[in-house]
Amino acid sequence: MDRPKLQIIVLFQNLGDEHPYFARNPAPPLSGLLLAALTPPVVEVEVLHEMVRPIDYGCDADFIALSFMDYCAPHAIEVARRFRRLGKKVVAGGRYASTFPEALAGHFDSVVVGEAEGVWPRVVRDLVANRLAPRYDAPFAPALDDIPPPRYDLAEPSFAIAVVTEATRGCPFRCSYCQLNIRPAPFRKRPVADVVRDLTATSALPYHKRKMAMIYDNNFGGDMRHAKDLLRAIAKTDLWGVGLQFTLGCLDDPEFVDLLVDARCTMAFLGLESLNEASLTSVRKHHNLVRKYREQFGMLKDRGILTFAGFMVALDEDTPAYYREAPAKLEAVDPSAILTSIAIPIPGTPLHTEAVAAGRVVDTDLRHYEGDHLVFQPRGVSAADVFDAYQRIPAAFYAWPAVFRRWWRLMRAYWTSGHGRHRLLRTPLLTAILWQLSRFQRVHARRKVAPVLVLERAKWRRLEAGRRPVDRVAEAV
Ligand code: SF4
Questions:
Q1: Cα of 176 to ligand 1 centre, how many Å?
Q2: CATH code, 22
Q3: How many domains is the chain partitioned into structurally?
Q4: Do the beta carbons of residue 387 and residue 323 sit within 8 Å?
Q5: Mapping DSSP to helix (H, G, I), strand (E, B) and coil, where does residue 117 land?
């Protein structure tokens, strides 16, 4: 007998179906593939990532599971309304559903609160048995044992990297803008053997897709002993490259840095966020030390590890002078790529509480809380300064001559540092990733950021003239 079908949709289009933007990310997020792995075989399961393909409302799925962040919540409600009208049961889960389940009640057939592992198989069985409860609460911060490998085979072929997993959850730090600090859970680690199994459970993938992986931790180095044990184990696999995310302070440990090389770490995502010490202090990111940036990024460059740095504007101690100097300072620190965003006071975070208490939140449309919109009154700069910096800094960084100069500095450092053990193999790989990443950021700036900034400038002109902001995108287009 045919099993009913469950479609898991990882939402992405915060500005709705009328303003789609397909991001062509190199790798899928973990949530959908992991949820599919947790799904018991009483249903057939498929995954749709809205960042690479649109929702098909004519699909033959009986049940829909929507996974989404805060900025997609209004879109999720609309998607759920359309599917429910077609007679499908729709379940919500993810960070926003876990923080504000009451805001979703009535819009979905059920809301899952918390981490899925402890509760998802029951939700699916209840769906099939037609006894779905309106809400399921998962245990808070459970141990991370017995998590199955994600269903890489269900990732869309357009993702260049399909092997994505996690080694830890949580972070020991308390940055005020970070969603992990809405209801902080203790830092938890998965058994090293489980993570290695995930990285090698790839027989369903074509050969070339088994060789690259991403470990999506908030802070891979939150427990250095665990991180080092895992890096030693990864070094014994036949992966060509792995991407990791950790805090800059981890680079103060020379053994960790050497183990990154042994584990063939190809790219490190690092939360640099600001080149202004006072701005870092304003968001309690005390563990970043601007005076060490150059040395820390240089260490990775010497070892042929690409660095992808998060970089924020609109932090409280930012000034117009800082924005003017930022491109030259970034050039001196020399990350391989940057991911620029406008600071967001995400509801529930300490930053949001502070901004609301100070009466500085001017835009409460959740769709705008993705990092391209300015939703609160900045302190030391004007909105115009923020938009100018948000456009100008990445434009200077990703101008092709600047990309070429960065590639040349990386290659020179790597080839002359004495660390280039696998130089002949790694050079084409590093070159391909750096150029693809730079191309992606340029396209993103043109197709996603530029149109949003036109609307944002209009919104802030209205605000500053004392008129109500335009908070519906459709009205402003
Ligand atoms: S270091 Fe990163 S993951 Fe940890 S609290 Fe700060 S922003 Fe969040």
A1: 9
A2: 3.40.50.280
A3: 2
A4: no
A5: helix
**Res. 168 pLDDT band, cuts 50 70 90:** very high
Q: Which pTM was predicted?
A: 0.95
Judge if 14 and 120 occupy the same domain.
yes
CATH, residue 263 = 3.80.30.20
Are the CB atoms for 90 and 66 separated by under 8 Å?
Answer: yes
- CA of 253 relative to ligand 1 center, distance in Å: 19
Nearest CA to ligand 1 atom 8: 178
172 and 234 belong to one structural domain: yes
CA dist 264 to 37, 207, 221, 267, 429, Å? 27, 18, 16, 9, 12
- Give counts: helices (H), strands (E), the chain: 17, 14
Six token digits for residue 366: 């959740």
Domain residues for 306? 160-455
Q: What is the pLDDT of residues 40-88, one digit of tens each?
A: 999 999 999 999 999 999 999 999 999 999 999 999 999 999 999 999 9
Residue 151: inside a domain: no
Taking the CA of residue 172 as reference, the ligand 1 atom at the shortest distance is 4
- Count the Cβ atoms, other than its own, within 10 Å of residue 129: 9
The pLDDT of residue 108 is 98
Across the strands, what pairs with 310?
339
